[in-house]
Write a structure and sequence with these properties.
alpha+beta, 10 strands, L,D-transpeptidase catalytic domain-like
Length: 253
């Protein structure tokens, strides 16, 4: 009797233990066919890429930098206990809408410019797989006020069509999505995405400053973005900031 009771208690405890085992974000994502297929196709190659940079996929944190005029998207990675990021992969943005300058309203076809983070994963995207950005952020809202709809639904996604997003082709988004799912599963709830109009070197600032000298507010906005660009490029650490009342960024020391 006691033996049967003990076995029953053990079985119950095992059942409770199994039921209480948390499912990771990655495991949840792998329930979706496209994510599972991308994982099977890309996982080993991505592990090898990370290994060359001495980064463990089980400790991966990500940061993404996109430059509009050169149609480039760079992926930086680090271990969770590291301080600085390293560039691990670079991709071509395969299509672009709008012109240089930030997004300020729905329907303007502009790609945003500023400091964002991934706030949602879409494994059933109309564009294969997609990663949503938190546009409009507080800086966008303060800079543009409430006079019109700022729009939204800005994604890094597959396919090669766009109205204000960053399209990467299905081939590339598979890698980016799997890396992002790992980073999210490792506890990185806000993967930074920095979008610049161009690589904001001093030479380029002069070049574009002269080219757009009749657009003083735009050039001032770019100079503000360049402060954050320089901070990141100096030591490859995540930039911390807050939005000032005028919608500009104030970067923390």
């Amino acid at each position: 009797m006691h033996s049967l009771l003990s076995k029953s208690i053990v079985a119950s405890l095992i059942g409770i233990s199994m039921a209480a085992t948390p499912v990771t974000f990655l495991e949840e994502q792998l329930k979706f066919e496209r994510v599972n297929s991308a994982y099977e196709e890309k996982e080993q190659t991505l592990k090898q890429t990370l290994g060359r940079h001495k980064i463990s996929i089980d400790k991966l944190n990500l940061l993404i930098v996109a430059c509009k005029d050169s149609d480039e998207l760079d992926v930086y990675g680090k271990n969770t206990d590291d301080v600085s990021f390293k560039k691990i992969l670079s991709y071509r943005v395969c299509a672009r809408s709008g012109t240089l300058g930030p997004k300020s309203r729905r329907g303007d076809d502009q790609v945003p410019e500023g400091f964002y983070y991934i706030d949602r994963f879409n494994p059933k995207s109309n564009f294969h797989l997609s990663l949503g950005l938190n546009y409009p952020n507080q800086a966008d809202k303060k800079r543009n006020g409430t006079t019109h709809d700022l729009g939204g639904d800005i994604f890094i996604h597959g396919a090669c069509v766009t109205i204000g997003c960053l399209p990467m082709t299905d081939y590339s988004i598979k890698e980016i999505y799997v890396l992002a799912a790992h980073a999210r599963s490792n506890g990185q709830t806000k993967i930074p995405v920095y979008i610049f109009p161009f690589r904001m070197t001093k030479t380029n600032l002069r070049l574009y400053g002269n080219r757009y000298k009749s657009h003083e507010k735009l050039v001032d906005f770019w100079k503000n973005l360049a402060e954050g660009y320089d901070r990141f490029m100096q030591d490859y650490r995540e930039v911390t900031f807050h939005a000032k009342a005028d919608g500009s960024y104030e970067f923390d020391q």
